[in-house]
Amino acid sequence: MINDKQQQDLTVLNEFRKEIARKGLHILIGFLPIIASRSYTAAYILLISGAVIYALSELTRLRWNGDKKFLPYRVIRATSLFASRPGEATHFIFAPITLAAGAGLTLFLFPENAMKAGILALAFGDTAATLAGKFCCRKKRNKYGVKTITGTAACFIVSSLCIWFVVNDLTISLAAGAVAALCEMTTLKDFDNLLIPLGAAAVVLIMS
């Protein structure tokens, strides 16, 4: 028989696996600046087509009335359930849409260096915040009661390093990393995917 401690450990392990899968997909947005450096058109096509395909798959999952054993449906459903957080699978999961929107707006609005800095902060800073906040210090919460202090610190450190890699300026990197962490800390649910890249990119543009 599994005791309470073992059950808790299994729950944490399951959450960790889901977050690794979810953030593994999240990190893929970090390749967008590389694609854009070759062709902005290709970057837009990839981003928009990915968002449309995802939206259609989610609508299919939620509204499907056909054979539940139909293989494409089973693949779509299994993928969504594997990467979803508790309670998310009952409705449309917006995280990939806000991710694409944040990256797309940053790509459209900002020049190259600012764009790269914003998208890298989104890809890696936000990922670090989630993993560190959920699994490194699970009981310490900031005053907002939603995000962890550890996660916010991880977002600041990783975002600053990513931005420094782009701009090679410590002051700008720390300022933009701080804004990215602030956006991550104060934004509810998945809307930090919009604010993190735009905030970090704006700081880089203003200070450069």
Blueprint of the fold:
Blueprint: H1 4-27, H2 32-38, H3 40-63, H4 71-83, H5 95-109, H6 112-135, H7 149-167, H8 170-186, H9 192-207
Description:
The chain has helices at residues 4-27, 32-38, 40-63, 71-83, 95-109, 112-135, 149-167, 170-186, 192-207. With 208 residues, it is mainly α. Helix 3 crosses helix 4 (71-83), helix 3 (40-63) runs antiparallel to helix 5 and helix 5 packs parallel to helix 9. The longest helix has 24 residues, at 4-27.
Radius of gyration: 18 Å
Number of strands: 0
Number of helices: 9
The helix-and-strand class reads: mainly alpha
In total, how many domains does the architecture comprise? 1
Taken in chain order, the helices and strands follow as HHHHHHHHH
Biggest sheet, open or closed, and with what strands and sense? none
Share of residues in strands: under 5%
Could you state the oligomeric state of the chains shown?
A: single chain
Helix content: over 70%
Enumerate the spans where pLDDT stays under 50 for 5 or more consecutive residues: 139-145
Distance between the ends: 61 Å
Instruction: Report the mean per-residue pLDDT as an integer.
Output: 83
Question: Tell me, what's the shape?
Answer: globular
